[in-house]
Amino acid sequence: MAEGLHFYISAWSHEAVEKEEGRPTLAEIWDRLREIELMSNIVWVRVALHDDTQIEEGGEKEVLTLAGDSIVTGTNMQPSKLEKTVNCKWLCSDGVIEISPTELDIYLCMPFIPENFNCLEIVWD
């Protein structure tokens, strides 16, 4: 059973917001990710910082330069299958890539990755 998304959005009603062309609203993406996470070949879905995000230390302060985010899944799907499943065209995403689980070692709470499962990342650039 999936653990639950670690992805937070406002309690704002997204139905009151008219969508313009482009990416779906955060609420629509949230709904789609919840559906994906319930699939039998997905063990978890997480939101991660984009690779280009930097944390610089300056004296007593840390400065975060947020470059964006990405969606990471623990799955036994191939990247091309996940692209179709999540509908990368609808997400206005550049696609899905496989990443090494060691790339997630920077996080304090990394989910378990079962044997024969991979980490796939939905990316935007």
Overall description:
This protein is an alpha+beta fold and 125 residues long. The protein has a domain at 21-52 and 72-123. It contains 3 helices and 6 strands, in the order H-E-E-E-E-H-H-E-E. Strands 1-4-6-5 form a 4-stranded antiparallel beta sheet, covered by helices on one side. 17% of the residues are buried.
Widest beta sheet: strand line-up: 1-4-6-5
Helical segment tally? 3
State the order of secondary-structure elements, H for helix, E for strand: HEEEEHHEE
Mean pLDDT: 78
Structural class: alpha+beta
Q: Largest beta sheet, briefly?
A: 4 strands, antiparallel
Characterize the overall form.
globular
**What percentage of amino acids are in beta strands?**
25-35%
pLDDT under 50 segments (min length 5)? 1-19
Distance, first to last CA: 32 Å
What Rg do the Cα atoms give? 16 Å
Specify the oligomeric state.
single chain
Number of beta strands:
6
Helical content band:
10-25%
Summarize the structure.
The chain has 125 residues and is an alpha+beta fold. Helix content is 19%, strand content 29%.
List keywords for this structure.
globular, 3 helices, disordered N terminus, 29% strand, alpha+beta, two-stranded antiparallel ribbon, four-stranded antiparallel β-sheet
